[in-house]
Input
Amino acid sequence: MSESVPAREAWGSRIGLILAMAGNAVGLGNFLRFPRQAVENGGGTFMIPYFIAFLLVGIPLMWIEWGVGRHGGERGHGSMPGMMETLWKHPVAKYLGVLGLFMPVVVLIYYCYIESWTLAWTWASLRGATQGLDQQGMQAFFKSYVDLDNGTVHGFWTPFAFFFATIAVNFYVVSKGLSAGIERLAKIGMPILFVFAAILVVRVLTLGTHEVMIDGVMTQSNPIAGLNFMFTPDWNALGNPKVWLAATGQIFFTLSVGMGSLQAYASYLTKKDDLALSGIATAATNETAEVVLGGSLAIPAIVAFFGVAGATAIAKGGSFDLGFIAMPLVFNQLPGGAIMSTLAGVMWFGLLFFAGITSSVAMATPALSFVEENFGWSRKRTATVLGGIAVLIGILHLVYYTQGFLDEWDYWAGTFGLVILALVETVVFVWIFGPDNMWREIHEGASIRIPRFFKFIMTFVTPVFLLVMMVWWTVQEAVPTLLMENIPAEDHAIRWVSRGIMLAILVFQLFLIKAAWRRRALAGKEVA
Amino acid sequence: MNTTAIIFMGGAWVFVLGLVIWSYRKLLSTPADEKLPPPGSIP
Output
């Protein structure tokens, strides 16, 4: 390590690190996206490609990202541009690392907006604002919130107030630093999330049988029918490549790999710290939240009150319909009246808020580290400026949400971009840095020895999996999305503006990288 | 609940809960400063 590497912050405890890492991974997708994906992709059969992808892509990428992060952090880099250069001594390496700055910043901005919904709905649950609403009423409640022109339920400024509050809380936490801010949040937020989710699972699974009207016929349904619906295998799905890619995609999103935030957290580790076992513990914590808790909540609850046909229709409407329309309707029908409805609503949206904020503070970390380390800004100043930028750009998401402004960012940065970064970092860390160096790096300070066949998997299988996924997504989704097929013509202009702003952020970050390296060169700093 | 659904759900739960219990037990039973030697250092 170079002697010029300044002292960096450190995690306060091992359990704090794992909770923060797991907090980064456990997000809204565990409770909203996973059940929908499982239902739409073969039910129980989905779990086969899901766990195969977990072992062949998820866990290996976890180790790769922890390894990349610690290797860079030991050399004074808390973000991907510097990390990439420590692995590959090539002028282009640091510019490839821009992906690890771009993705978390872009996703952070729109993710905070979605996160602010959970705060708004927690408040609405507390006030009893959604009690007594039927399906149309609940849809109107949601539509009025996201469509600023439709002020039938909410005031014009209400979504802004919750968005600003969410940004303020996020940047207050990160401004406090690693141990006093992020780690403390994880130690408080993660147990609350698990306790709320466990209470709701017990409540949902003990709901009993209800009369449900399906196609004009009264029938009976219960939460066990929901578990049946989620886990009954459809063997034909196994032969469908779409199901395999959906499962791999879900593993990707759920573990928050390909984002740049895991690497930023891991950069605060030293060679004495374990990566191998901690990586597994983090992934396992996330999977418990997703498969055991996420899989037992939304779908069983919705099936109990709306039947399988109703749940299928709601799932097709998207994850937000599931979480923000269907679940409050379920809570309205719980035995126990207004008190139970309020409690369930607060716990559901509260757990979603903690799932969201423990992820969003992780997304803020790479950019904060980059500015702090390369331009000498204090963390507080960096957090304030980045928070201000997030507010300014985030307002566009609020104003143009219904025209698909957010969808563009979610697709290009929050979906497609993740695979590109994962592929790039895998190639650089495993092939260019070298499989032996990669293996040695991951085992430095390790508490367990990783089975040797994983070296083969990480060298050959994981990159091929990622490449296939990228090619498939390019052909199947990226090209039609780029050409805006099936998008109303009146929304094209806004979507192009949305893309333009993303591009501007990317170019600005490339410029910052160039400026940072020029500054380093002038300061005579040695890049280890 | 049908048998295959029970098998799939049970299998998924056993896998993730088993992994989480094993990893946390191992973490808690391994002192943070007790490390394996680097790979290749033991003949």
Observations:
- The mean pLDDT of chain A is 92.
- Chain A touches chain B through 39 residues (CB under 8 Å).
- The beta strands of chain A are 210-214, 217-221.
- The radius of gyration of chain A is 23 Å.
